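Marked as duplicate of an earlier ticket. Keeping the data here for the record.
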Amino acid sequence: MVVYADGATIANNAAVESGYILKLNNGAANSTSYAINGGSNKVTIPSGTWVHFFAKANVTDKTVDVKITNGSTVLYSGKESINGDNATLGGINYNAGRYQSVFKLDNIDVYTAAQLADDDIEISTPTVTDGTLTFSITNNTAVAYNAGNIVVASYDDSGALAGVVVKDAVTVAAAPYPGVKDHGTTENITATVSSDNWKIMFWDGMNTMKPVGDVITPAPVVPAP
């Protein structure tokens, strides 16, 4: 299967050897292993299974970010070089083997750069209203995101710990349209805080307390000139 660039030469019953954005080549009968873009990277795609392909082309550096998932399982994630100087989408070509070849293709969506999400995981700026801190975690990927245990700690004016709220095992489901802006899955988080001095921490568990994300603190107050 080949996603080729505009202007590429596509011949009947022949492999696409140049001018492609994404190419998966299976060189053996009944094999589930596919070479990606003619390089050494390979992906195993289970036979008889629907999988999701996400390809984000960078027209400037001539690369493509590729993610292939089977439900919640990531089969491949990496950056590949585009073959040729053109990264503008041309179409899709499928060159099947002569025997025992079955291929199904469904739900093709094409987006501009402006329609794609900026980050895989987006965390909103926290707000505090009447002692309740609120923020959201948005998952823009094809697999569920494990945010771990979310710990919200409050501190008094002297810096001493004044209160702790723990949200156990927070998981954000996969996005229905992975990679697309405003189509991610969002989990809203609320916690009671006792002051305007607080921290949000993401840990893998309460026993190990290993960080799995950046610490979030209030934005500094800039004095008026």
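See parent ticket for discussion. The chain has two domains: 2-110, 121-203.
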